[in-house]
C-alpha cells in the first residue's frame, strides 16, 4: 500500500498508468479536454536520502518538455513496477513532482529507482480580455468601445467564442463647448499634460499631437522628454488624443482627469513593422467532392487586415470565393489541384506565405499504390545473394506521401497528423547465409494510414567565436517568448512548434559579455532533431567618450587594412531613456563584424534576408554589421542617441553597381528579418592635408539595442545542388538525410578565386531524400565574380568533401567536364594537405542555357528551384561523404534512421518508440596487435512475443588507442532492454558480444557483473570467445561500461553515446579512443599462425571440399547443441552468427 506520511494539500495517492499502457487508470478524475503525457524523466537516483523526481529539477534539465501546469503525474520504477507493488512509501503531486525518502521505508529498505511523467493540457484556450478602448464619443449617446482577446492555438481543438466584445458607452454632457457631433469638447481654462513613449518606456520627441476628431490639425509636438501640453481640452471630457511620428504607427489614448482644471494622457507608440507571416497554409490531400480550408495569419504594426489568395500564381476573385485570412473551397474537383498561397498587406508593406499544395484525386482512383517501391538494404558480408553474389536485398518501402483519409472536420486549418501512405502488411522471409539463416521482414502491401507525428527538435551548443568559451545560462527567446536558458556548457534544446516555417531564435547574454545574437536555425519538418554549433561575437571592450564633444568610432579594425567606415556622434546626442540629455562620460562598446575576415561568417546574426515590396523574401549582401551599447560611465544605465551619422568608405565597395544600392538596415530580433533604416548619400571627406576620400553617409537614431547592417539587395541568384552520402562509394541508396549543408558566399580578389577578399552572405539547408539546393549569388558574365565555400555537418560531425588533388576526378566530384573546370572546384586542403578536408570552394558561374554542358546542374538559375529539387541522381551535383570506422548495422524490421516516417509498429522493431530513441552501447577493450571487428547479436530474451527471435546485428571495428601499445576498443551498439511498441511488457534483450577473430575473454567489469547477478536470470558464459547477458533496463553509465542516450533523433542519440563511449565518461565527448577507461569487457586476441589458407582462400581454390568441411562442422554443432542447451538458462545459441 502507499504511505501517506507528510501528505499536504493537493497531493494524491500514486495513480497507475492509463490508456495504452495497459494498467490501472487514474484513481482521481482525469482532466476534461485534450491532454497528452510527456516523456519519462529520471533526474535523480535513490542514493543518499532517497529518490527525488521534483518538477523543479525536471524543468531545469528538460524545460521545453514540461508544460507550465501539469494536471497529473505517474511514476514507475525503472523495472516498470508500480509503487504499490513495491510496498514503498512515496509522495507526489502534479505541482511538486515525486519523492521517496529512504528513512520512511519499512524494514530499513531503500527506495527503488523511479521515473515519472506528467499529464499536460493541449486544449486551445482564450487569453485574458484586454483593456477597453477609448469611447468613440466624448459626450452624448451612441458611443462604443471594444476589447479584444486572443486564442492560444491548438492542432486538436478550437476556441469557442468571439475574439472581441463591443459595449455601448454613455457620456455626460460636455462641460465646455462641444462640437456638433460630440467628437470633442473644448474648455479654454483647462490644460492637458501628456507624454509620448515607446513600448519599452523611452521618451519620443517631435511627435505630432492632435485630437482624434481632427487628426490633421496638429495642436502640439512632444519635446525631447516626450512631453507636451494643450490648453482648452476639458478635464472630464474623456476625449481621445491621436499622436503620429515617422517610423511609428499612430497611437491613441483617452484623456484622464487629474483635477478641476487639468487632465493627463499617456500615448504609447509602436514601431512600424512590416507584415510577418506567423501562420502558413498547410498542404492537403482530398478526394473529389470533399471540402478544404487554407488559413494564414500575419503579424505586424499595424496589424494586417487585408489578405489575398492565389492559385498557381493567379489572384482569386474575392467576390467569388468570399475569403479573408482563410480560403474555403467546397465540392472540390481535380482541376482545383495546384499551389495556393496568401498575401497579407498593410500600408507599411506586404508579405507572402509559403506555398501549400492541394492534391485532389478523382472518385474511385487509388489513394495509395498498394505495391511497395524498391528499397535496398545491405546484408551481412556472409549473406551474398544469387549468382552475382550481391549483398543487397529489396525489402520494399511505401512512398512518403500524403493521402486522403477520413477526417472529422474537413474545414479545419490543419488536418492534424493527417494520413500517409504507410505499411499495411509485412512478410517474413529467410536468407541463406554462410552457416545460418537470417530472418528479414519485407513490405508486402501499402495503404492509407494515419501519419506518425514526430517532434521537431533543434539541439546545439553556443560558444564564443574567438576562443570557444560556452555562453552559459543565456536567455533563449522564440519571438517575444522566453523559452529557457542555455546550460553550463552552452547547450540548448528547442522544441519546434508544429507548422513553423522559419525558426528564429535569439540568445541574450545576461552578463552582457557577448552580443545579443539572432539565428535562423534550420530544422527537419518531417521530425527528428538537428544539431547546431552556434558561434557568438564577444562584445568589444568599451571606450570612454565625452558626451559634450563630437565623437568618431571606427567600424572595422583589421590589421593592415583601413576601417570599413565610422560612426560620427555629434555633441549632446546622448540621452537617458526618459529623454533627459546626458553630459557625462559614456562607456561605448561598438562591436563590428567585419566580412573581410572570412572566419566571422559563423558568428553573423540572422540569414541576411528582408521582405521586398512584393512580399517576397529577398537576399542581402553584407558589407559589415555593428552592434552598439552605450552606457552611463558611473550609473551603467543604457543610453540612447539622437540622429548620428554612419559613414562608409566608398573604396571598400568593389562592385560599382553597389554604390547606388547601399542602404542601412536594422535587425528585427523577433522575425530575424532586416528592416530598412535609410539610404546612403555620396559625399567627400578630407583626410589629412591632401587626401580626399569618397564616403557614403547615412543617418540613424539609436533608440534600442539593435544590430545594424551595411547591405545591398542582390538579385543575381542561383541554386547549388549538394548531396551527402554514407561513404565515398556514393551509392544512391546510401544518401544521408538530415545533414546541414552551409554555403558562404565569397567575393574573390580579382584573378585569385581561391583567395577571397570578403564574405557576403551565408545559407544553411538540410538534406532530404534528394539532397539539398542552396541559394547563392552568381554571375553570368564573370565566372569568378562570386565564389562559395561549402561545408556539411551531421550531429556536430563534419563530413568530407571529394578531393581535388593530386588529380581532379569528375566522376568522384559528381560534375562533368568541361563545366567542372569553369567552376574551379577546390577542396580546402588543395594547396596544403595539412588542412582539413571538410569543405570545398567553387566559382558561382551562372549556367548558360544555350550550352548543353551547363543545363544539367549542379548550378541552377533561381527560377529553376523545382528543377533543382527534383533533379535525378544522375544529374550533376557536388558531394560530401561520411568518414567512419568500419561498421555494419542490420535490423530484421528495416528502418531508415533519417526518415522517421519509415518506422513500423512491430514487436521486432529495433526502436520501439518513434517519439524517443534510446541508444545503448557497450565498450569492449581488445588487447592485441590488430584492430578487430566485434559483433553484437540482439535477440528477444524475456518477452513472450519475441523470445528467441533476432532483432538485429551490429558489427564495429575496434579503434586503436594512440596512447597504449597493442590496445584498441570498440563501442558496440546493442538493442536496449525495455518496453516494446505496445508499451505493455518489458523485454530483457539477450545480447551476445562476439569478437571476429582468435579471441578469448579475459575480464568483465566488476560493477556490471554484480549488477547482472542482482537482476536474474543470469546467462552462463562458459564460452570465453563470447559474452552473453540479458541487457540491463537501467541506464547504467561509464562505471559499468554501458552508455545509454535517449533523444528524439536516433542518429543524434547514437552520436552522443559513441562520443561518451570513446571518452569513457557519462557526460564527456571524444573522437579519440581511450581504451583503458570505462570498459565493460576485455578480450585478448592474437593472429592465427599462417599454417593454412583462410576460409575465403579455401572457398575460392577448393569450393567443394570447403563446403563439405562446413557441413561436417555444422552436424557436429547440432549433435552438441542439446547438451549445451540443457545446462543454460536461455535456449539460444548466441555464438552462431
Automatic annotation (TrEMBL):
Compartment(s) where it occurs, according to its Swiss-Prot or TrEMBL record: Secreted, Extracellular space, Extracellular matrix
Annotated spans, Disordered: 1115-1137
Keyword field: Cleavage on pair of basic residues, Disulfide bond, Extracellular matrix, Glycoprotein, Immunoglobulin domain, Secreted, Signal
Domain of life: Eukaryota
Any one cellular-component term (Gene Ontology): extracellular space
InterPro entries hit by this protein: CarboxyPept-like_regulatory, CILP-1/2_8th, CILP-1/2_b-sand_dom2, CILP-1/2_C, CILP-1/2_dom, CILP1/CILP2, Ig-like_dom, Ig-like_dom_sf
Subcellular location, principal: secreted
Residue span(s) of domain Ig-like: 275-359
Protein name: Cartilage intermediate layer protein 2
Organism classification: Eukaryota, Metazoa, Chordata, Craniata, Vertebrata
